[in-house]
Amino acid sequence: MFNPLDHKGIPLESQIRNWRELNVEPIGPEAVDPYTRCRIITMNGIEVEAINFQHQFARNCPDQEVRRQLAYVRYVESQQQRVVNWLLPGVASVLETTLGYEQVAVDLTAWVARHEPDPYLKQAYEFGVLEDFDHLYRYANLYEMVERRKAEKIVNGLTEVMPGRPTIVEHRHPFDEVRTPYDRDSVDPRSKLHALTILSAEQQVMFYYMNVGPQYMEPIARQLYQEISLIEQEHVTHYESLLDPGENWWERLLTHEYNECWLYYSFLQQESDPRIKAVWELHLQMELAHLQQAADLLRRHDGREPEEIVGSAGLPEPLTFEPNKDYLRHLLATQIDLNKLGEGYVREAHERFEWMQQQLHDGQKPPSEQVIDLHRERFGDEYRIETEGPHPVESLRPRGGSHA
Amino acid sequence: MPDTRAPATPGPEEDVVDLLLAQHAQVEQLFLLVIGSTGDTRRDAFDDLVKLLAAHETAEEEIIHPLSRGLPGGGGDAMVDDRLEEERQAKETLRTLIAGGVDADGFETGVILLRDAVLTHARYEERYEFPQLRQHVPAERLRSLATAVRAAEKTAPTRPHPSTQSATGNLAAGPALAVIDRLRDAVRRPADS
Q1: Model pTM?
Q2: Model confidence band, residue B73 (pLDDT cutoffs 50, 70, 90)
Q3: Other CB atoms within 10 Å distance of the CB of residue A113
Q4: With an 8 Å Cβ cutoff, are B126 and A380 in contact?
Q5: 3-class state of residue A308 by DSSP
Q6: Nearest residue in chain B measured CA to CA from A383
Q7: Quick one: fold of B16-192?
Q8: Above 50 in pLDDT, residue A54?
């Protein structure tokens, strides 16, 4: 398997791009491969995490020379983020991009859950994916109300749209969001990459919703973004707590760069749009040099070899965007009523959960319920895309029909 | 086949912006259908598209843009002039496509260009024009305009006679123009009263 540690990549001094190179042509607004959009959204989240992580590192680093090196690579990562995110078309609406974000959250998390070797970590992804699955359904109903368009236009048959674990019960006491971290020395290196990838994606979803939500004039849109952005924040807590807090800054930097190599390499393998594929290829070559720099810093300041952090076997199996319909239906059928207590999972509505629900809902329906009620009121039904048959959970089948 | 029905059952709350949004969605669907099909399906879809675009753009030119010109805060005129220029260019492309017919060389390329122009135009309206209307025009007025537009469209022929050789030509000259006339009559009356 491709081992990024064996490659030098593009020299760092050749990585600053000019305006012409930054001014990328976006993907088409119509009839695009939904998974091309998903790969763009994923890599944007990864680059945003790279930038934010390096800012935090710099604020905690007393060595001026290291701070300069971090500043340089951070600038390059910033240009990468601008290029990647600017591949999204200006004609797409905020809600259309939102539906793309949720499709990412569903199919990316489902793939990671299927490939995660550690059962406790796997459970964390299986738990989380059913919640994002529900968000897709809520936003799809909002989309038809506000823009009069159908989410099918965005997901294009690859991802189903129907209730997951209802958003109303996703609001838990923050204590119960905190998970048990993996152990940095014994964990499979793949698990480190999985955790960082999902953390980055969810963090970007949170940033996006908490910032674009107030741009809407429609009260239900403003309220739904507010509610779901709070859940996404809980997801960030959920996923970030899986990472070993004992990992030091040097090894975290290395893991970040290695993860970027893995994802650009993965997307390079499957990209259907040749122009976007060239971006993934270029960015992989850039990341290889960032990884070399991170490896040098690790050796010099931590006295360890990069293989001690990420293994010597090379990259794991490429992460792939593909339909996960059967898997999601299986999870819906078996884990819909799961809740969290402490660092584990339970099926009962425990006291702390009930307390939080009471504080937040206070006898009112949350926006995630109102959006479906409003859709029923205005359109006579709710919006779903159930391509593989009726909902596996009988109580979540539509009351009085749906249309897609 | 994509669903090209009007996505919304009009409720009492529906205003003219809702109606135009639903038409934008239908226009998107019809473009997909035209681009993705051949033969009679393509011809029929293109006929539907031409008719919808004619009615839709007329409603915008007759109702929406004049309303926008008078909005407080200034800038309305320049914005409307930009939209009208886009509509003028789109009509020119559309005329060429109608004249050549769906079997003409270059139809495919032309219709993709038209789609990109029309959808961009629609997004400009949705982002910069419609929110201003909802903010400044009384809700009741916007709702009554929706009723007027719907009524005008209902009285127009719903579909050209199928399988005649010049269906598209007939459409451009006949039913589409009829829709436009009825729309003009219908919307001018309540607006003037």
Answers
A1: 0.90
A2: low
A3: 23
A4: no
A5: helix
A6: B7
A7: Four Helix Bundle (Hemerythrin (Met), subunit A) (1.20.120)
A8: yes
The sign of the CA dihedral A361, A362, A363, A367 is: negative
Read off the pLDDT of residues A356-403 as tens digits, 9 standing for 90 and up: 999 999 999 999 999 999 999 999 999 999 999 999 999 999 876 555
Contacts of A93 in chain B (CB under 8 A): 123, 126-127
DSSP codes, B122-164: HHHIIIIIHHHHHHHS-HHHHHHHHHHHHHHHHTS-SSPPTT-
Give the pLDDT band of residue B5 (cuts 50, 70, 90).
Answer: very low
Contact A261, A314 (CB under 8 A): no
Residues 6+ apart with CB under 8 A from A321: A35, A38, A39, A107, A108, A111, A270
As to burial, measured by CB atoms within 10 angstroms (0-12 exposed, 13-18 middle, 19+ buried), residue A399 is: exposed
What is the mean predicted confidence (pLDDT) over A169-198? 98
Instruction: State which residue of chain A sits closest to B26, comparing Cα positions.
Output: A149
Contact between chains at A148 and B21 (C-beta distance less than 8 A): yes
**What is chain B's percent helix, strand, coil content, to nearest 5?**
75, 0, 25
CA separation for the pair A156, A173 (Å, rounded): 36
Q: What ipTM describes this predicted complex?
A: 0.81
Query: What is the SS3 assignment for A344?
Result: strand
Distance in angstroms (rounded) separating the CA atoms of residues B187 and B66:
12
Residue of B nearest to A149 (CA): B25
pLDDT in tens, B105-157: 999 999 999 999 999 999 999 998 898 899 899 999 999 999 888 877 765 44
Q: What residue spans of A241-388 are helical by DSSP H? A: 249-270, 274-302, 307-310, 325-335, 351-361, 367-379
Establish if A29 touches chain B: CB-CB under 8 angstroms.
yes
**By mean pLDDT, which of A111-125, A347-361, B6-20 is the weakest?**
B6-20
Residues pairing with A340 in the sheet? A345
N-term to C-term CA, chain A: 43
pLDDT tens-place string over residues A219-264: 999 999 999 999 999 999 999 999 999 999 999 999 999 999 999 9
